[in-house]
Amino acid sequence: MYLADRWTDYEVIDTSDGDKLERWGKYILQRPDPQVIWDTPKGSEWKKINAHYHRSSKGGGQWEFFDLPKEWTIHYPLPSGRLTFHLKPFSFKHTGLFPEQAANWEWFSSIISSEKKKDSDRKIKVLNLFAYTGGATVAAAMAGAEVTHVDASRGMVTWAHENAISSGLENAHIRWLVDDCMKFVEREIRRGNHYDGIIMDPPSYGRGPKGEVWKIEEKIYPLICDCRKILSDDPLFFLVNSYTTGLQPAVLHYMLGTALRGIPGTIEADEVGLPVTKTGLVLPCGASGRFQKI
Question: What is the model's pLDDT at position 246?
Answer without folding.
Answer: 67
